[in-house]
Amino acid sequence: MKKRILLLLGIVSVFLFLTGCTEINKPISAESTGFWNEYIVYPLSWVIVKGAEVLGGSFGFSLIVVTLLIRLAILPLMIKQTRSSKAMQALQPEMKALREKYSSKDQKTQQKLQQETMAIFQKHGVNPMAGCFPLIVQMPILIGFYHAISRTREIADHSFLWFDLGDKDPFYILPIIAGITTFIQQKLMMAGQEHNPQMAMMLWMMPIMIVIFAFNFPAALSLYWVVGNIFMIAQTYFIKGPDLRKNAVAGKAGGAKK
Question: Most buried among 12, 19, 96, 146, by the most CB within 10 A?
């Protein structure tokens, strides 16, 4: 779990570094050079602009469509993440028994706990880091969106709903929605693991970080995150829905017995 938190913090640090670098004030065009510009920023800018032409000039709707297309493209990875989360949920009784068995905090006992925990993961073919892979994939896309929007004036200056795509949300509505949808998505992914203190920390840490970032970055990024979260919530519920309903029924039955 500590590795996951460190990985998350590392990804965030890279995100903050890249958003302030790599020619952020230089307009993007077909003549822009460099791997980042040629293969990530300009293609995203081009797709959003062409999408707006098809959708009657609305860069906001184009951004939504492009977001959904990207989510469909990485859908296999997201499904793998959801299934990995489901597998982790099934292992919780074994994990709890291990933690009780090796409850001592001395170094030797904790090493034994880590060894047996990894043995359980290997036995059931579960990768505990699988949940971080989609975030690793999404970060370059998110940074690419930031550059594509900031360095393409027709996108940055476009108004959509109550905000300009290239500016902060003046009413902070989208950042709050981004935080709420992130929490819901995390809650669904971690269903059955809420009693793990470390998982509970992750449940709250990610939405708070998203809200803080969304307050300071263009509203278009919040729009991308919200649309992506809604897609993920629907996907997660589709895959884990039967188990979620079963747990809800079991919870009600347990409450009735008490």
Answer: 146
Tens-digit pLDDT profile for residues 7-23: 555 555 555 555 445 56
The DSSP output letter for 131 is: G
pLDDT digits (tens, 9 = 90+) for 124-157: 777 666 656 666 677 778 788 888 888 888 888 8
Q: Quick check: helix, strand or coil at residue 159?
A: strand
Euclidean distance between the first and the last CA atom of the chain, given in angstroms as a whole number? 33
Specify the 3-state DSSP secondary structure of 205.
Answer: helix
For 34-71, b/e burial (b = at least 16 CB within 10 A) is: eebbeebbbebbebbeebbeeeeebbbebbbbbbeebb
